[in-house]
Amino acid sequence: MNVLWIFAHPEGRSLNAALRDEGLRALEESGHSYRVSDLYAMKWNPVVGHDDFDREPGERLLVASASQEAYETGRLSADIRAEQEKLAWADAIVLQFPMWWYGMPAILKGWFDRVLVKGLGYGIAAEDGTVLRYGDGKLTGKRGMVVTTIGARESSIGPRGVHGGLDDLLFPLHHGTFWYTGIAPLPPYAVLSADRLDDAGFAAAADGLRDRLRTLETAEPIPFRYQNRGDYDENLVLRGDLATGRTDLAVHLRG
Amino acid sequence: MNVLWIFAHPEGRSLNAALRDEGLRALEESGHSYRVSDLYAMKWNPVVGHDDFDREPGERLLVASASQEAYETGRLSADIRAEQEKLAWADAIVLQFPMWWYGMPAILKGWFDRVLVKGLGYGIAAEDGTVLRYGDGKLTGKRGMVVTTIGARESSIGPRGVHGGLDDLLFPLHHGTFWYTGIAPLPPYAVLSADRLDDAGFAAAADGLRDRLRTLETAEPIPFRYQNRGDYDENLVLRGDLATGRTDLAVHLRG
């Protein structure tokens, strides 16, 4: 497989960087090809703006339509096009970041804000007008996996833990971003208590990561429901006979 | 009250900007003072880096400890100190943004990444060693309210809607950021179907916003549980006799 590894940590000598290097070695050993987007090293600009779409600074900017027009006419900025080209090349994306405020660092959030423009990430319709998203999209067929380090200890970020469960915290990314665009999200790989890891802890974390990367091609994705296969009604609400009476985010998993 | 209005939209002639202007007028009419952080206009840098902490580019960066040290010695970068000063001044924070990929635009996520340094936003302990967070923190006493525009229609982002419920999508911000640092989050104000709003729709959205701002000082916050008042056990897991058998994010609301 072709793997795009997106790395979002400011320090090249961090636990995160050491894990990344272990991960890339594991990919090589499994015969995969990889490319790396090291966002800090690239000085990636995460802020959507006029320059993205070849617009003058004073021009009125409607982000969705401007992004679609620039995408379709090849006028997106070169840094965005370069990432889109890597994304097109990749069969799988690994997204590695330290959890900051229960989400991605801004530099990584802005990768999605800028790269997944209208016409590529959203605003896509079939010939009959059906909106293609949540399972069906231009990125269908690709896989995505989060690798994250978290300061919290394991119990506190599990079900009923004070920080909320990891699946719920990552729902906007797994479901609202990956799955929305068609990318099948794999279960995340999280290193807990990451700021208190000793050598043995790092070795275990690296082992776990290598194990997970060995099954990058075969692991079962998180089984989110498809928007267009009958589970949601015409108001895009889950049918009453599915996960009846529940309103938690896991209702969006196929039963 | 003193209100800090943080605005994160690239276009000064947008629906969002018009709503902001309506909102600021409403604050004035209610006798509040306000200051605005217009992140795009300020060219706010959302990327945590060496410069934040007065560190040399080549120096090894441990974000948490570097941020705490710079905070405590007054060596944080001037742009971060200016935002911290506004935050200290404010009794309430209004956070206005278009929802992008089910979260904040990167420029706004990076406001939290950079401003809420260790020693101010996290890593705070009482004299007896108790970690102060989730209700108790340096920002306790302040209120926070999200004002957001969303392309999706109302049914699709409610409970059982295909996009997930708004409270769940905003949990990392409401609970994991606001409440974590002590800020009491008010229910969010969301303008749905925002990219298809006609004049009457805008007038209704502006009316709704003015109504919500009139009760900024008195509205009941989202009743998240306190970490340190007995609801969580020593592993930071919710006690078994509270919201028994449930694992949805609403278990973290006081019953």
Automatic annotation (TrEMBL), chains A, B:
The keyword Transmembrane does not apply. It comes from the Bacteria. Keywords: Oxidoreductase. One of its GO terms (molecular function) is NAD(P)H dehydrogenase (quinone) activity. Pfam families: Flavodoxin_2 (PF02525). It is an enzyme of class 1 (oxidoreductase). Its EC number is 1.6.5.2. Residues 1-212 form the Flavodoxin-like fold domain. The keyword Hydrolase does not apply. InterPro entries: Flavodoxin_fold (IPR003680), Flavoprotein-like_sf (IPR029039), NAD(P)H_dehydrogenase_qn (IPR051545). Belongs to the NAD(P)H dehydrogenase (quinone) family. This is NAD(P)H dehydrogenase (Quinone). It comes from Amycolatopsis thermophila. The lineage of its organism: Bacteria, Bacillati, Actinomycetota, Actinomycetes, Pseudonocardiales.
